[in-house]
Design a protein that fits this description.
The chain has about 280 residues and is an alpha/beta fold. It has a single domain, classed as Divalent-metal-dependent TIM barrel enzymes (TIM Barrel, Alpha-Beta Barrel), CATH 3.20.20. It is built from 11 helices and 8 strands. It has an 8-stranded parallel barrel with strand order 1-2-3-4-5-6-7-8, surrounded by 6 helices.
Length: about 280
């Protein structure tokens, strides 16, 4: 496996309550950790401060669009907001953003699939066009659907030559809202990687019953980090270590509660370092 840099693990913050996120920003700046900013609240003071704190030499910045309005399914109704959030992203120093296909699950009925795929494909074409205007990119995050759904989406992206669109793998969503194993998802990521798509990752733990967005220390306390039907023979710490080693260029963001973010980072990196030391 390719050697990896644990500084590719970073933090997710949201655009409000600057005092709460300032310690996270300080650690990210000190260790050049990537930061993903959720553009959900439009807090002016926080945005102003973030513009001065983020994007220093060697630090990656990413944003997460307000997927409640700007999902692939519905963004054509809110194009001014899409442009505003891309411009905000660029002002924060971000080169790309994360977005969802839809804010809710879409129909699984076979009779609707061709119509659904055509609607999404047309919206993806428009999204790619807007991104091209700004020199920007969007990574589409897996949410409520399985691998087959996203494979069809990315087949359309390739067929239509939409080179501003890439993929964000959310490990918690994959565990709860698909029936595939992590190994099968990793094979899909290999497939996308081989086709030239860039990868981004969201890391957080859950029970498997719903997506609680737990920190790893909290998940371990609750007994949710042991090998299971999703991770197979790996515990959760080893699973994310293997993801990192297999996809070393992907930016990997811990999506955990703000008050637990620093402990989660130090604990997770120490555990992964220990796993790798044992493996030699």
């Amino acid at each position: 496996m390719e050697k990896t840099d644990l500084n590719r693990f970073g933090y997710k913050i949201v655009d409000r309550d600057y005092a709460a996120i300032e310690p996270i920003l300080a650690d990210a700046a000190e260790h050049l950790r990537p930061v993903e900013v959720g553009l959900y609240f439009k807090d002016g003071e926080t945005h102003s401060r973030l513009r001065t704190r983020l994007g220093g030499p060697g630090q990656a910045v990413v944003t997460h669009l307000d997927h409640r309005k700007l999902s692939v399914y519905s963004h054509l109704r809110h194009e001014p907001l899409m442009r505003e959030q891309i411009e905000t992203s660029l002002a924060l120093g971000a080169g790309y953003a994360i977005n969802h296909v839809a804010p809710y699950p879409m129909s699984p009925r076979p009779d609707y699939q061709s119509l659904l795929l055509e609607r999404l494909s047309c919206n993806l074409e428009r999204l790619d066009h807007i991104c091209r205007e700004y020199g920007f990119s969007i990574h589409i995050e897996n949410t409520f659907h399985g691998i087959g759904f996203y494979r069809r989406i990315f087949q359309q992206i390739r067929l239509r030559g939409l080179d501003r669109l890439h993929f964000c793998f959310d490990i918690g969503h994959a565990k709860v809202w698909s029936t595939s194993s992590l190994g099968e998802w990793m094979e899909f990521l290999d497939e996308l990687n081989g086709q030239g798509f860039n990868l981004h990752m969201h890391l957080h733990a859950n029970s498997g019953l719903m997506d609680e967005h737990l920190s790893l220390p909290e998940a371990e306390r609750l007994g949710y980090t042991q090998p299971d039907v999703f991770t197979g023979n790996w515990g959760f710490h080893e699973a994310i270590s293997r993801l990192d080693q297999r996809f070393p260029k992907a930016c990997k963001i811990f999506e955990v509660p703000t008050g637990e973010a620093l402990e989660n980072m130090s604990n997770s990196l120490a555990r992964m370092a220990g796993i790798r030391a044992e493996a030699g």
